[in-house]
Amino acid sequence: MMRVAIVAAVLLAAAVARADDELGFVPPAPGTYQLQRIMPSPDGTVVDVDGKAKPFSRFARGKITVLSLIYTRCSDGRGCPLASYLLKGLKGRIDHQRGLSDRLRFVSLSFDPENDTPKAMREYRELYAPEKKGVPWYFLTTRSSRELEPLLAGLGQDVWVAPAGPAAEAGPLPHLLKVFLLDARGSVREIYTTSFLQPQVVLNDIKTLLLEEGTRFE
């Protein structure tokens, strides 16, 4: 039943994305503007889809990073499924542009460690990034809410706690959709909410950071 709800949310997210794309918003060209350094990325411990604990810095520094905070049970077509759907589309664009893939990474971090086990994140990955080529896309969780807290606090992501009870009866986790763009030093340079989470906007911001680093691309 949960799988059906997730697929339905994906379909709704696709419809929302198509509708938003028809607005005709034209973002400024890469390199014609600057992105401010908003805050440093936090430190903490995360777990990958194989259940291996690793420092969060491994996924937040060294490359330009597009980080989405999600949970797999989200059924809001303008929430987590929309973020994941749009990142999938963005990945498709980048994978076809030479000189970009090896300088970037995507990261989806769950804020529902009780339900989003490494196995659940691995299954979620198959919905959005079944192929391993192109821009690497990591799907991460944490071992506990205690390990998650400093990451959420450091990124300014508010998540309301679901009602207590068995996982099958757990309610939704209300939150404001946020996707973060980090530079190679781990600084947050942009935060996207639903209104500005458009693939071309994010792509131009990525290219702006690459130009800032002195990187040239085709």
Summarize, please:
This protein has 218 residues and is of the alpha/beta class. It has helices at residues 2-21, 80-95, 118-128, 145-155, 199-212, and strands at 39-40, 45-47, 53-55, 64-70, 104-110, 137-140, 179-182, 187-192. Helix 1 (2-21) packs across helix 2 and helix 2 packs across helix 5 (199-212).
What characteristic shape results from the CA principal axes?
A: globular
Helical residue percent band: 25-40%
**Could you give the distance between the termini?**
45 Å
Strands, count: 8
What is the H/E string? Answer: HEEEEHEHEHEEH
What does the average pLDDT come to? 85
Number of helical regions: 5
Q: DSSP strand (E) fraction? A: 15-25%
Report the biggest beta sheet as strand number plus sense, adding barrel if it closes. Answer: 6 strands, mixed
How much is the radius of gyration in Å?
17 Å
The low-pLDDT segments are 15-23
Describe this structure in words.
The chain is built from 5 helices and 8 strands; from the N terminus they run H-E-E-E-E-H-E-H-E-H-E-E-H. It has helices at residues 2-21, 80-95, 118-128, 145-155, 199-212, and strands spanning 39-40, 45-47, 53-55, 64-70, 104-110, 137-140, 179-182, 187-192. The strands form 2 sheets. A 6-stranded mixed β-sheet has the order 1-8-7-4-5-6. Strands 2-3 form a two-stranded antiparallel sheet. The longest helix has 20 residues, at 2-21. The relative contact order is 0.22.
